[in-house]
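URGENT: need a sanity check before tomorrow's submission.

F., can you look over the GNAT family N-acetyltransferase record below? I want to be sure the sequence and structure line up before it goes out.
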Amino acid sequence: MQQLQLTDFEKIKPYLDAANYEGYNSNFVTMMMWNHEYHVEYEIHDHFLVMVHNYKGTRYFAMPYCSKEYLKEAMDYMMEYARKEKFPFMIEFAVKSFIEDVKEIYGNQFIFERERDQDDYVYEKDMLMNLSGKKMQKRRNHYNNFVKEYPQHEYRSLDINRDFDTILSCLERWEGNKEASESLASEVYGILFLLSSNYLLDIKLGGIYINDELKAFIIASPLNHSTIQIHVEKADKDIRGLYPAIQKEFLEHEFPDFQYVNREEDMGLEGLRKSKLQLHPCHMVEKCRVFINDSYIRQACSQDKEDIKKLWLSRFEDEDEKTARFYFDKLYHEQYTYVTRFDHHVICALQIHPFQVSGYEHSSFILGVSTDIKYEHQGIMKKLMRYVLERYKGQRIYLQAYHPEIYIPFGFQPSHKHQVIKVNKHFYKDDTSSIFISNNNYDYQAMYNQYTQRFQEYLIRDKSYYCYINERNQAFGDKIMTFINNGQPVGYMIAHEDEEELRISEFIYNQELLKDIVVALCQKYDKRIIIETDMQAKIEGKVQEVITMMCNQPSSSNEEIRFINEIY
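Structure tokens as predicted:
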């Protein structure tokens, strides 16, 4: 390996062109601007170019630069090089086209970790230049205000020999007001390198002058795919509309034949992400890290619990710290949990609990199927699911699927449905009811057992289920209320209430008193009422049928007399 130098461009350009990667990390100008940070080394072989970055003690590869036909040759060499040099194989900033080629050649030999914070924002040049349309209205207003306030401003193409001192003094003035930081110092160093190396790099500079004083400037260079990259964009922040002005006028004067503008990544900074999204990118250049796939599956142990909990919270929108704490303190069992581990942490998990269903001696229930978002779309969940199904081969297994199409390839079919009913309160407005709705605790298990007598293939709930019912409701912000008729409990509901809606997620009722119960609800709650209930319930309103459960074995009973209503 040899150090990358400014004078190496002509040697490596054919390989950069052969790879033709999208994304600014493959731009030679970018490499040189930040080479003081990354200390890039490279080797040229007959068919490919390899680059190694050395960043703060970590060594990693760039994507190999070659045509697709030599990609395997390059990758094999890189893996062997990492082995000999004794550093972990990793490719940083890999783009989608490269990843697809690697998957085609190597199958599952590599694993890919998404890097959303490193994705490039790409914009239509005309939109940024013309500031046209509704999307650009706010930015257009800022620009128009700038033009009104500074009608004598002037755009000039900058020349390093003539304007170097002016640019340097502006940088010192604008950046001197910021708190000193390592990243800021590094950026200024990179800018100075570009300015001092302008004669060897394909870059253009442009600035806006007010009263013959430089107030903003841009440094940009051409990329592949009819795209230009803005490396540096600096302006006096005290002048309203100056940022949209320098961008608009730079694009009007420079790079006339290009269609797109790459404005680099947001680095995970919330403010920067917001501002880049507000400019409405036409697409993102997605980035990944690439590793050798040494992931493995095993039954969970105590060290996995916190990782699984983090996955649970990140992937299930209706979960929060309270609900997760309840589940993992009261219901989680590591012996019923299986995980895929990679890089010393859990990247995929599922749980499979015993599930006592009437009519069947042995059943299980899969829940909590979750994959770390950084590792999605690589078949990781599929592999874990197949592993678990093989271990439980021959058993009857249920799962609750929000996206049933995902589980059909594993042999699951819908087994249970329920109704979600928006009650037509007008229909019940003239009716009366003898039902009283109570907050007191009753024997909920007895009511459930009475209710399920008319069903087949229902969950047999034991005492432990109802031991935790109040804790569970408290965690979810739900409440349990009982329907009373002539002093006797005849059913209950678990519901969540806000200012506009009462949503009943469990509705246990006496069939003969169903209408009376619904009337009582309409009289008590002056708001929208949504009831999730079994397929037999006859309630007036707007009805939606929803798949509640899927099963890997057929059912012997009619669909309408099956009932399971479980999350956990």
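My own read: The domain at 417-563 is CATH 3.40.630.30 (Aminopeptidase). The chain has a mean pLDDT of 93. If you see anything odd, call me.
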